[in-house]
């Protein structure tokens, strides 16, 4: 009875061994035979079952195939030296099983290289144990905790290695290209497995394509650009996203070795989006850097003026007035400002002039822009793509005119004309002219009166009556006649001024007459002067535009 029971148990174990071995699939194996052997004994193995018991202990050998390291892949079968045939591991194992074993071995190999205190036999024992542990999990051997004897390798070391191997497998699936061979023949099967790192790093270095525009300008920033890393040239399979920092650098993105494609998704402040798709070759274990540059946003500059006659509202002026040669001062500020916070100093300044151009209809256009043909003076231009441009920022343009534009009377057309054209209305120009002339007159007359009063001891009343008053009346006669819209010869105005001066000199020379009329005349003249002053102010504010300026689009009517 005991013999019968023993034979049954032996048969059951044999059946279990067959069932739990690696599955066999009809495949084409290599015809070449490979010599396999157990080269030497490396240490004691304890087959710890999942229930905690030790199923068996044995002295494991160092397995080799044609002199190269191999591992036992069937813990339940004894090994015999001899020739075996080789097949790809994928014919007997799934990709997940292969990567599980291969990555576990890769971890132990790296661990052994980092811990030189372990000898080659100890490292091999650890490698063989992780192979059995992973296969036990996949094939149900129920010895997931098989280990080397603690006399061979300390428990702490083994625990660290086995836990590290499991974590390494989870963290590195997909990062390695895994494969293996299985050697079959008489006795135990052997396996060889490898895991080759199949990823590298991609990073990006971004710069400005035109640093002369962007350097020192807060409206441009390299930071914040985003780039997509794609597996295909059409950029439909995104693998990672790269974002630039303030220096234009990005973090690394780990991708599979080969060629990836990189495209800008969003540009940083002040730059145009680069639509180019770049290719980048990635080598396993290395970092590849793509150097790119973005084009800063700029604007072309052009001011176009149309010459329009103020009375006829046509582009054919009646007089000799011209917009050609008018000068503009351009002040560029590297930042966004308004009139309240505009810096005292501009970043760059230019002066340009207008040039007349005639279109196909014969209409004269007066154009100025930032280009050498129009430049009068100033800093160098900002250049991009061979032409002058303006970076992002604030631009102020000042039309340069004489402080007091010259006015003259066009007798043939019964109108007043301005020598230099400006953006300002005739009211503004004429009022400014009168104010500045009056200011200069007051300063000069005050200085003259102080000099006469101090040196010749002439009273202030005498100065007013004998000099200031007749001079003012003379000026009124002159300007009143010359600025009148009626044709008045200059000679007539001069003669009238001389006659007035003679009459007033005769009056002041006769003491009796002057004493009688002095006060009444002064009161009368003061009243008339006040009335005229009020009238002139009203006309300047109310009637100037109506008489001398037209109302049309593009013409200032202030």
Automatic annotation (TrEMBL):
Keywords: Membrane, Signal, Transmembrane, Transmembrane helix. The lineage of its organism: Bacteria, Bacillati, Bacillota, Clostridia, Lachnospirales. It comes from Dorea phocaeensis. InterPro entries: Ig-like_fold, SpaA_PFL_dom_1. This is SpaA-like prealbumin fold domain-containing protein. Residues 214-295 form the SpaA-like prealbumin fold domain. Gene3D superfamilies: Immunoglobulins. The chain crosses the membrane at residues 388-408, 434-454, 460-483, 490-507, 519-541. It comes from the Bacteria. Residues 1-29 form the signal peptide.
């Amino acid at each position: 009875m005991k013999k019968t029971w023993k034979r049954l148990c032996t048969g059951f174990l044999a059946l279990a061994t067959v069932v739990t071995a690696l599955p066999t699939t009809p495949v084409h194996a290599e015809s070449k035979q490979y010599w396999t052997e157990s080269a030497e004994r490396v240490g004691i193995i304890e087959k710890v079952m999942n229930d905690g018991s030790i199923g068996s202990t044995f002295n494991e050998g160092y397995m080799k195939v044609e002199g190269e390291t191999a591992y036992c892949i069937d813990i339940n079968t004894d090994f015999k030296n001899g020739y075996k045939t080789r097949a790809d591991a994928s014919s007997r194992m799934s990709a997940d099983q292969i990567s599980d074993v291969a990555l576990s071995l890769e971890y132990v190999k790296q661990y052994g290289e980092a811990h030189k205190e372990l000898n080659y036999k100890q490292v091999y024992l650890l490698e063989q144990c992780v192979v059995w542990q992973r296969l036990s999990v996949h094939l149900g051997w129920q010895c997931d905790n098989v280990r080397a004897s603690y006399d061979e390798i300390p428990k702490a070391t083994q625990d660290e290695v086995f836990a590290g191997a499991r974590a390494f497998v989870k963290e590195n699936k997909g990062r390695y290209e895994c494969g293996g061979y299985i050697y079959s023949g008489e006795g135990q099967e052997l396996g060889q497995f490898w895991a080759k790192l199949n990823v590298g790093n991609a990073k990006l270095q971004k710069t400005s394509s035109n640093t002369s525009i962007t350097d020192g300008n807060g409206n441009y920033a390299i930071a914040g650009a985003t780039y997509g890393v794609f597996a295909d040239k059409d950029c439909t399979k995104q693998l990672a996203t790269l974002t630039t920092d303030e220096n234009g650098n990005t973090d690394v993105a780990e991708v599979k070795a080969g060629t990836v494609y990189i495209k800008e998704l969003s540009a940083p402040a002040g730059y145009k989006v680069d639509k180019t798709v770049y290719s980048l070759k990635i080598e396993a274990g290395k970092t590849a850097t793509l150097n790119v540059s973005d084009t800063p946003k700029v604007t072309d500059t052009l001011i176009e003026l149309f010459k329009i006659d103020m009375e006829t509202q046509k582009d054919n002026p009646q007089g000799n007035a011209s917009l050609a040669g008018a000068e503009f001062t351009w002040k560029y500020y590297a930042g966004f400002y308004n009139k309240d916070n505009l810096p005292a100093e501009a970043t760059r300044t230019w002066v340009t002039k207008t040039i007349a151009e005639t279109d196909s209809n014969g209409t004269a256009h007066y154009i100025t822009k930032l280009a050498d043909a129009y430049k009068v003076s100033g800093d160098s231009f900002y250049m991009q793509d061979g032409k002058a441009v303006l970076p992002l920022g604030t631009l102020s343009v000042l039309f340069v005119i004489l402080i007091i534009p010259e006015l003259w009377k066009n007798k043939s057309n019964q109108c007043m004309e301005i020598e230099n054209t400006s953006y300002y209305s005739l009211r503004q120009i004429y009022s400014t002219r009168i104010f500045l002339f009056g200011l200069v007159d007051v300063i000069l007359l005050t200085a003259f009166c102080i000099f006469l009063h101090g040196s010749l001891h002439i009273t202030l009343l005498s100065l007013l009556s004998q000099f200031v008053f007749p001079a003012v009346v003379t000026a009124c006669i002159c300007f009143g006649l010359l600025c009148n819209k009626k044709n008045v010869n200059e000679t007539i105005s001069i003669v009238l001024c001389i006659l007035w001066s003679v009459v007033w000199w005769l009056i002041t020379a006769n003491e009796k007459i002057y004493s009688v009329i002095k006060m009444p005349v002064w009161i009368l003249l003061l009243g008339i002067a006040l009335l005229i002053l009020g009238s002139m102010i009203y006309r300047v504010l109310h009637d100037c535009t109506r008489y001398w300026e037209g109302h049309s689009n593009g013409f200032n009517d202030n």
